Structure to design on (230 residues):
């Protein structure tokens, strides 16, 4: 897949695979093209070359709302919450992306609230008044309401205090243990590689390294560039 913004090539013939039940992480410096890759996959920005396939369906030129109804959900870097709406209204929005009729939506919502009890306690609170960690939980919960087949997380720990970062990765580990399929973009390379099964390193819009995360964690180049190794 290739993506350009005018004359700027953000992604150059990137090839990436996420298998069902797998957590895959994409790491790289700011401006490497990580968020662009997620947004292109979700149908939010067009790609100029290559193809995107999800569960055997070609997503090329498919609008974002139809992609979401196939079961692909993106939690964007800015969380994308409706800050002037209440927690429950934001969560209800997550059910609308599912293919109708969604007879199990109420049960899905209860399951999500069991996973994120703080949101049950904040049920009637405006989303914009939540703490940063609570907002991130709400953003992830909203994506989970429709039982996504692929959950894409863009910088879920960005701007959070260390204790809240730890909580976000606890949630990701729990989702992994439950069999979720996740594509994770994350600046915290060490934590991302520790939670994922496989990883890709993106530099200047190109994949320069890929493999099992255990191998990447041991690699000298990754140690130097992303993990503070000697």
């Amino acid at each position: 897949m290739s993506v350009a913004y005018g004359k700027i090539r953000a992604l150059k013939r990137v090839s990436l695979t996420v298998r069902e039940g797998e957590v895959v992480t994409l790491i790289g410096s700011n401006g490497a093209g990580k968020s662009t890759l997620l947004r292109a996959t979700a149908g939010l920005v067009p790609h100029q070359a290559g193809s995107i396939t999800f569960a055997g369906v070609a997503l090329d030129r498919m609008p974002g709302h139809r992609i979401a109804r196939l079961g692909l959900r993106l939690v964007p870097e800015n969380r994308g919450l409706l800050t002037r709406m209440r927690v429950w209204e934001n969560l209800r929005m997550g059910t609308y992306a599912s293919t109708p009729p969604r007879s199990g939506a109420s049960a899905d919502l209860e399951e999500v609230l069991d996973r994120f009890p703080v949101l049950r306690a904040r049920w009637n609170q405006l989303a914009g008044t939540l703490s940063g960690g609570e907002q991130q939980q709400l953003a992830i919960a909203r994506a989970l309401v429709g039982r996504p087949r692929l959950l894409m997380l863009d910088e879920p720990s960005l701007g959070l205090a260390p204790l809240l970062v730890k909580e976000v990765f606890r949630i990701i580990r729990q989702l992994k243990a439950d069999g979720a399929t996740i594509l994770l973009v994350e600046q915290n390379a060490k934590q991302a590689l520790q939670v994922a099964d496989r990883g890709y390193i993106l530099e200047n819009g190109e994949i320069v390294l890929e493999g099992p995360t255990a191998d990447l964690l041991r690699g000298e180049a990754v140690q130097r560039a992303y993990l503070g190794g000697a």
